[in-house]
Design brief:
The chain has helices at residues 2-29, 35-54. It is an all-alpha fold. α1 packs antiparallel against α2. The protein is elongated and about 45 Å long.
Length: 55
């Protein structure tokens, strides 16, 4: 169970990092921001945080 939580939270963290990177590049390089990406950041962070507490 701990291994599954560890893998899941690590995957969520990597997705969160990639999402934030894409959001920053879109915002500053192309002057285009997506609210959907920002919402996804909050959802990934909250899921990662709640699963990390259980670990």
């Amino acid at each position: 169970m701990n291994k599954a939580l560890s893998v899941t939270t690590t995957t969520l963290l990597l997705l969160l990092i990639a999402n934030v990177f894409v959001d920053v590049v879109l915002r500053y390089a192309f002057n285009n921001s997506s609210i959907a990406l920002q919402e996804l950041e909050w959802h990934l962070f909250s899921a990662m945080f709640l699963l990390s507490i259980a670990y």
